[in-house]
Specification:
alpha/beta; 52% helix
């Protein structure tokens, strides 16, 4: 969503590198470019004005850090103020000591409330909770059925009854207490625009269930219209936080950079994809880093921790240490990488990536095609890829729906990856010289059979504790893996 803004801001801040001093005129020049970039991203005018004023005041006001150059100082100030615009500190979501924790979702129709309710329930389940969903949106046709469909995918119960939405919400609260559910998430009705009837109904539901948290669900793609919507809901409900939906869209992102500051409430959660698990707590400092092209290492680590089982990771690390990393392990790593989410979003979280790499279109189908190639090999070929000759490549290509050249490219990349990891081939055919050396060696020991056959590790070497990310080791463009017909 923030690709264009990221390009503009990172380019502007990059121009500050190496400057020995920053005059007020230089700061004003930089701020003029930042102002244009934010306005083009559809950020609220008032937010842009206050943001640039604060940056200018801090940049010219003598705020100095001895370890930073003037250019780095301005970059730090821009980052700090961007964090403040996004809400400052993340919302510390706490479950009520006396369950259930009641969460009320409000927002306009089409903002994604129903999907956000199911995603929030799934997030609560990941925290060890047992949520109940309440379908109090009795205005939109099939809204409750949509909620039930989503709830079935996460094995969560939905409570709803026709008639009065307020009575439905109150009944859901009573059922949650009786059934021992520790989280209650209430999905309310929306309208295409703000009206008195909508606000009155939502306020009555809030009075009936007395929520611990009231979240305003905002469509990230609506731009500055989100500001007036947020102000109206906040005046009625005293919003505790904001849930941004469709943050993976291709809009300019003005809503995400406007709502939190205008309302004075932090962004609590963000929906970052279509899958039910594509929902995460919002961290303003991490999002600021992404917008400024600095990456987001912490979120990347958290995603990896969710995907990689500790035992599996240790086993893979041990195979790396022993030099027995095979194509089967390669496929396993690809599958784990795919579970982390969209490859493009993963690359954008990596700090230090060039603009060309960050903006490159990375097709997730390449993982599927690489997997198909490996699965078309025999077990022996996966363990010892050096035995794959031209005829074997042709057979593998036919079985995977690719070409011999694509199979060869994958094998080449796998070999290069092993070299980058410090590994050789698992087993190398013994040549005549090696045989003569073994013969001479056995003669020195009394003519007995050459002992061992196991690997001898260099002195001081021990098992490796980590795995080098495949995204660093694979040249995806060189693989040229595309689905047939594309």
């Amino acid at each position: 969503m923030f690709d264009t803004l990221t390009d503009r801001l990172s380019g502007t801040l990059r121009s500050l590198r190496g400057r020995g001093r920053m005059r007020p005129a230089d700061v004003d020049e930089v701020l003029a470019e930042i102002r244009v970039a934010l306005l083009e991203a559809d950020v609220n005018v008032g937010v842009v004005r206050r943001f640039t004023e604060r940056v200018r005041e801090r940049s010219i006001g003598g705020e100095v850090t001895a370890s930073l150059t003037p250019g780095q100082q301005v970059t730090k100030i821009v980052n700090d103020e961007l964090v403040a615009v996004l809400g400052g500190n993340p919302l510390n979501f706490q479950f009520a000591p006396k369950p259930p924790t009641v969460v009320l979702l409000a927002g306009l129709q089409g903002s994604g409330k129903t999907t956000a309710a199911a995603k929030l329930a799934q997030w609560c389940k990941s925290q060890g909770r047992n949520p109940l969903l309440v379908g109090a949106d009795l205005q939109r046709p099939a809204a409750v059925e949509q909620l039930r469909t989503l709830a079935r995918s996460i094995d969560t119960e939905v409570w709803s009854e026709p008639g009065d939405p307020v009575a439905c919400a109150a009944g859901g609260l009573a059922h949650a207490r009786q059934a021992g559910r520790d989280v209650l998430i209430v999905d309310t009705a929306g309208r295409l625009a703000i009206d008195v009837e909508l606000m009155t109904e939502v306020a009555r539901i809030s009075d009936a269930v007395e929520p611990h948290y009231t979240f305003l669900v905002v469509d990230s793609m609506v731009g500055q219209d989100a500001v007036s919507t947020a102000e109206a809901f906040h005046a009625t409900l005293e919003v505790d936080g904001i849930i941004l939906t469709k943050l993976d869209g291709d809009a300019r992102g003005g809503a995400a950079l406007s709502v939190a500051e205008v309302v004075g409430r932090p962004v609590a959660f963000a929906s970052v994809g279509e899958k039910i698990d594509d929902f995460e707590q919002f961290h303003p400092d991490r999002m600021a880093g992404r917008i400024l092209g600095m990456g987001d290492v912490l979120t990347l680590i958290e995603k990896a921790e969710q995907v990689y089982e500790e035992a599996e990771a240790e086993a893979a690390a041990q195979r790396l240490a022993e030099g027995t990393f095979t194509l089967d392990d390669f496929v396993d790593q690809l599958r784990q990488l795919r579970k982390m989410g969209n490859l493009q979003s993963i690359v954008q979280m990596m700090p230090g990536m060039s603009d060309q790499v960050r903006d490159a279109e990375i097709d997730d189908d390449r993982i599927t095609m690489a997997e198909a190639i490996v699965l078309s090999m025999t077990p022996a070929e996966r363990v010892s890829p050096e035995i794959i000759d031209a005829s074997r490549r042709a057979r593998i290509a036919a079985g995977s729906g690719t070409s011999s050249a694509q199979v060869g490219n994958l094998l080449k990349q796998f070999t290069q990856m092993r070299k980058m990891m410090g590994l050789g081939s698992k087993r190398r055919p013994a040549g005549r010289k090696a045989a003569r050396k073994r013969g001479r060696g056995s003669g020195r020991t009394g003519g007995g059979r050459a002992g061992g056959g196991g690997r001898v590790s260099p002195k001081g070497s021990g098992p490796k504790t980590g795995i080098k990310p495949l995204s660093d080791a694979i040249d995806w463009d060189a693989l040229d893996l595309k689905l047939p017909g594309r």
